[in-house]
Design brief:
The protein is α+β, with helices and mostly antiparallel strands. Helices cover 27% and strands 21% of the residues. The protein has a single domain, classed as Sandwich (Jelly Rolls). Bound molecules: 2-oxoglutaric acid and fe (ii) ion (FE2).
C-alpha cells in the first residue's frame, strides 16, 4: 500500500517544474496523501494566545470560519479575540487556496472553497457518538450537506506550539473497501431525499451518491470488527507540517493531537485530471448505474 508522498515544498505559493503538477495531481487523485514536512503555517507572536482550548465551544468539535461570509462560529471568544481568530483563519484559508492552485493548477477553474476549521482541543477526547467519532477509520460524508458527487479535498496543518505530532491512521484503498461494505447498504427509500430536503434536514438534495457515501462512512465507524482487524498504517504528522487528503477517498482516523487548522475544498468530478478515480465513478462502476 502506498500512503504518503513527501514533497519538499516550503512555500504556500511554490514555483514548480512543468511536470510536477501533473505528477502530484495523479498521486493525490490515486489516494496518496501529499505530505509537506517543511510547510508550516506561521502563528504571529500576538496570535499565540489563540492557541488554547478555552476558545472552543464545548458543544462543537471545531471553531469554524466561512471565507465567503467571513463569519466565525462555534467559539467562546467574543469581540477582539473573535476577530483575531477570524483573521488567523482567513489567512489560513487564503494560503491553503494558493497552495491548491499551485500544486494542482488543473483545479483552478472548478474548485470551490468551503469552511475553514480550527481544532484547539485534544483530538483524543470524548466524543458524543460513534458516527461523529473521527478516531475511527472512515471516509468523509456530510449528513446535512450533500456534495452531489463533488470531491472533498482537505488541507491540514499541525500548528501545535509544543512540538506534539498529530497521529493518524490510514486505511486500505477505496477499491478494496467499497466492495466489502456495498452489499450491506440498502438503496435509499423512495422519496427520502425529497423529504430530507423539505424538512430542512439536508441543505440541498441527498443524491444516491450521498446516500451511499454516508452509509459507507457510518457502516465503517459502526463495525468494530472492521475497525480492529482491517489493514491500516499509523502516520505521525509533525508540528509545523501540512498534508493534503481527498478525505472522501482515503480512509483516515485521528488518534491524537492538538491544535490543527483545516481547509475544505469541493471539486466537481469533471474538473479532475482523471475523473475515473473519483468515488462517484468507482461506486457507479460497482453498482452499474448513475448515482447523481
Ligand atoms: O482532526 C483531524 O485530524 C481529522 C478529523 C477528520 O476525520 C476530518 O477532518 O475529516
Ligand atoms: Fe474525516
Amino acid at each position: 500500500m502506498l500512503f504518503l508522498i513527501t514533497l519538499g515544498i516550503s512555500s504556500w505559493n511554490p514555483n514548480l517544474d512543468s511536470t510536477q503538477p501533473k505528477e502530484y495531481t495523479h498521486a493525490l487523485e490515486s489516494g496518496r496523501v501529499p505530505f509537506l514536512p517543511h510547510l508550516s503555517f506561521e502563528i504571529a507572536e500576538d496570535e499565540r494566545y489563540l492557541l488554547s482550548p478555552k476558545w472552543s465551544d464545548p458543544k462543537a468539535k471545531n471553531i469554524s470560519y466561512d471565507p465567503q461570509t467571513e463569519l466565525v462560529k462555534h467559539t467562546s471568544a467574543t469581540g477582539a479575540d473573535k476577530e483575531a481568530i477570524g483573521r488567523m483563519m482567513a489567512r489560513y484559508a487564503d494560503y491553503a487556496h494558493k497552495l491548491v492552485e499551485s500544486l494542482f493548477p488543473a483545479y483552478r477553474r472548478g474548485i470551490r472553497i468551503g469552511r475553514t476549521s480550527y481544532r484547539p482541543a485534544e483530538a483524543d477526547g470524548r466524543s458524543s457518538s460513534v458516527r461523529k467519532d473521527d478516531r475511527l477509520l472512515h471516509v468523509d460524508a456530510f449528513a446535512a450537506s450533500p456534495v452531489q458527487g463533488e470531491r472533498i479535498l482537505r488541507i491540514f496543518s499541525n500548528i501545535n506550539p509544543d512540538g506534539k505530532p498529530r497521529e493518524w491512521t490510514l486505511g486500505e484503498p477505496f477499491d478494496l473497501l467499497a466492495p466489502q461494505f456495498l452489499p450491506k447498504i440498502q438503496r435509499p427509500i423512495p422519496g427520502s431525499s425529497w423529504l430530507l430536503k423539505t424538512l430542512g434536514i439536508t441543505k440541498g438534495k441527498r443524491t444516491e451518491y450521498d446516500h451511499y457515501m454516508l452509509q459507507l462512512h457510518d457502516q465503517e465507524k459502526l463495525d468494530s470488527n472492521f475497525q480492529q482487524t482491517c489493514p491500516k498504517r499509523f502516520v505521525s504528522l509533525p508540528a509545523g507540517s501540512t498534508w493534503i487528503v481527498y478525505t472522501d477517498l482515503v480512509p483516515h482516523a485521528v488518534k491524537s493531537g492538538q491544535f490543527c487548522l483545516e481547509q475544505t475544498f469541493y471539486l466537481p468530478v469533471e474538473s479532475m485530471q482523471e475523473p475515473d478515480l473519483s468515488p462517484l465513478r468507482k461506486l457507479e462502476g460497482l453498482l452499474g448505474r448513475k448515482l447523481v
